[in-house]
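Sample pair:
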Amino acid sequence: MSKGVLARVKDEFSFMRGNLLTLIVSWLFMYFTFSLIFPFESPYIKELGAPPVVIGLMGSVGALMLGLVRIPGAYIADKYGRRQITVTMTFVIAFSFLFFVFAPDWRFVLLGMIISNSSLIYQPALQAILADSVPPEKRGMGFAATNVIPNIPTIFAPAVAGFLVETQGLVPGMRIVYTVVFLCMLSAAFVRLFFLKETLREPQKIKLGEMKEAFAKSLGSIAEAWRSMSSSLKFLTAAFLISAFEDPMFRWFTALYVTGVIQVSNFDWGLVNVVSIAVTIVAGFPLGKLIDRIPRKKGVLLAYVIFMPSTALFILSRSFIQLLFVFILFAIGGCLIGPAYSAMQADMIPREKRGRIMGTIGTLNILATIPASAVAGILYDLGPQYPFAFSIAIGIVVSLIVLLAVKEPKTREI
């Protein structure tokens, strides 16, 4: 590789330092755990005694806890700072996975889920740190980096999980998986403890006695944050509140549909996830760079042009090859929509309001998923294809809102 090429590469990735680099390193551990869990999480819970409707309700309970804690989380991020709450709660999340390791039935999984989701009170702070750490002209590449680089070590994780489940059995195999998850999350917590720096200029010291007051003030700050949003940001937020209905449907019922309806083996399902991650890694940076060159709005719309027909193909899939093709399309769409939406959001929100407004958007997004999980469970019981068919209708509505009502700012916020 010539010196000129090396210089261009170095310049292209010069933004990857400090907090952004710390978060990416911590996500290397965390993304690996997500890739281990996702293919077999729902089948594991079902094997512990929870029918599809209960799995959907569990998702709703988890979303409710997450929505409740994010209310003061946004207030804390802008008053008390980002670092302390992020580090502390990452440790709590790590230990919550011990409930998954030793669960005798689905109720213990639910308890672990409640603790884990409650600990995500730090999410608004983390989002603010991330937005503070990426320069405006590099946001497409920056958010692509957070999507691509942490996925690199995960490429074989689903196959490893599939092998363990195939050879050890579903429950014993998943207990091993969740033990690895605990160790990886603990490693991520230590990385953040030692290297994460505060980005709020004058953070106040957290006082536990003020938390009740913080919750009350946060409810008011949600309304205040909504009023302070531009018209386009309100429409963008509304579109993604509607799209939030899709997330629980795919998280909780994709694996059940794949193993129960399409009926591929556990190992083949793991391989599908491996290929999906590989596509994310290969396509992530080129598509992230594309987001910096075209209007962010076009990136979001292009993602939905990919998502909607590929979801229809998913419903019709009945073989490993068909499923593999669908997940390649899903991965490409994901490489577009994540960076495009995050970059557009950061472009519209001033730095001093990011914790509050991003926290508000995140909270509303989570609250929208509370009924979605339960609805998805009911729809799946009526017919396994129904949740995914419903997501296509949601995609059409979201695309129309973004196309007709969202306008990008002429000047991007720093």
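The chain has one domain: 14-199+209-405.
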